[in-house]
Every structure is written in C-alpha cells, then in structure tokens.
C-alpha cells in the first residue's frame, strides 16, 4: 500500500511540475503581449522586496560571519590571511548570496503565493475571474513573476554587502586582520562578471519561485488540506529546482580554470 501511494504521489508531483513548465511558457507569451496589471505588480513588489528585506539581510550577515570563522583561521595558518576578504567576496557573489536569498524567498514568498492562490482555487475565486473575463495569468501570476524577477536581484545585492560587513566584523575583531587588507582583497578578487552572474542567477531563481508557487496554487484541490499540501510541496519543489538550476548556471558561467586566487596573491 505504501509503495502504491508513493508512486501515486510521484506521478501527481510530476504532473504538477509539467503544469508549472507549461505555466512558465504561458507567462512568457503573455509578457510578449505586454499584459501587465501595474497596480498588482507594485503591490507584489512591495510584498517580495521590502517585506523580505530584514530576514534576507539577517541571514546574510550571519552567513558572512560564519564563513569568515571557518576560512580565516585556516588561511592565516598557511600565511594567506590577506586573501580572506577576496575568498568571502567570491563565495558570497557567486553562490551564497543568490542561493541563500532565493531559499529565504522561496520559504517566505513562494509559500505565500501557493497558499493564497490555492485558497482562491478551492473557494472558486479563480472561476469567478473567468466569469468576469479576467485571465488569472494576467491578474495573478504575471505580477508575482515580475515582482520576484525584479526584487530578488536587489535583495541579493544588499545581501552581498551585508554578508561582507558580517565577515569584516569577524575578521577585524576576532582575527585582527586589517580592514584595508580585507576590503582590498575583495576588490581585487571580484570582477564585473561575478556581479553580473549573481544578478542573472537571482533573476532566474525569482522566476522559478514565482512560477512554481503560482502553479501549485492553481492546481490545488481538496479544500483546506489540499492548500496545506500545495504550500509545503511548492516550497520543497522550489528549493529542489533552485539547487538543480544553480548547478547548471554555475557550470555554464564558471567552468574551467580561473585566475582570481592567483591574482589575490
């Protein structure tokens, strides 16, 4: 019985994932037709950006501090304390800031999208939109996709700065590293492409979070219990897809050998 239930759950999840892919294609088509509800978009931008700012920055400052604790001692032991800032900057820019900010947003915003739209689905408010000749994709999905796509890169950039400040505090107060050396190392290691790649990743992650959250909401069935299941599954799926897509984006952007570490010395 449990094996049958597991196969059934996997089949339903696969169907909903295909529905999310199909929804993403519909969003692209509608955007090309410039069907945008500006007021809804601004409201969602406020919900995604400013309302998520505190938790994103709090996460970033502790991530930067913990990374510095883990790295600084080893680098100082090998006489390479002057590159701690650069290594932290590269780690935050290329991976930690875009990925962890997306994880925070998936948990906070993606779940809200799934729960809100799922509730509208089970209470037949989606059907009411069709009766009013309003396309739910234009009215509900596109504003959320645009909000995540626009605000997540901004949150990622702010998280990068905050993470560097957290690392700087630990490096100067705990390991007695010079703040000038720390910041110069970060400036020497980072290139324009590192910042651009972080923004590209953040934009992609934002689209994925919004599309998955909205799709799981639109395919919700089963009343209040179904809404809870959709919310949980949407977050788990978004996290899984973020990690998978991050691998392929990193492979495309950074494969091969680099010279940033050598330049840092």
Question: Which properties best describe this structure?
Answer:
10 helices, mainly alpha, disordered C terminus, 265 residues
Structure notes:
Helix 1 (2-32) crosses helix 6, helix 1 (2-32) packs across helix 8 (192-218) and helix 3 (50-77) runs parallel beside helix 6 (136-173). It contains ten helices and no strands. Helices cover 86% and strands 0% of the residues. By secondary structure, the chain is mostly helical.
Write the layout of secondary structure elements.
Blueprint: H1 2-32, H2 38-48, H3 50-77, H4 84-122, H5 125-131, H6 136-173, H7 179-189, H8 192-218, H9 223-254, H10 260-264
Helix pairs in contact: 1-6, 1-8, 2-3, 2-6, 3-4, 3-6, 4-6, 4-7, 4-8, 4-9, 6-8, 8-9
Q: What is the overall shape?
A: elongated
Query: Regions with pLDDT < 50 over 5+ consecutive residues?
Result: 1-5, 259-265
The gyration radius over C-alpha positions equals 21 Å
Estimate what percentage of residues fall within beta strands: under 5%
Assembly state (oligomeric): single chain
Q: How is the main sheet built?
A: none
> Could you give the count of β-strands?
0
CA distance, first residue to last residue = 61 Å
Order of helices and strands: HHHHHHHHHH
Number of separate helices: 10
Instruction: Work out the helicity level.
Output: over 70%
Mean pLDDT: 87
Main structural class: mainly alpha
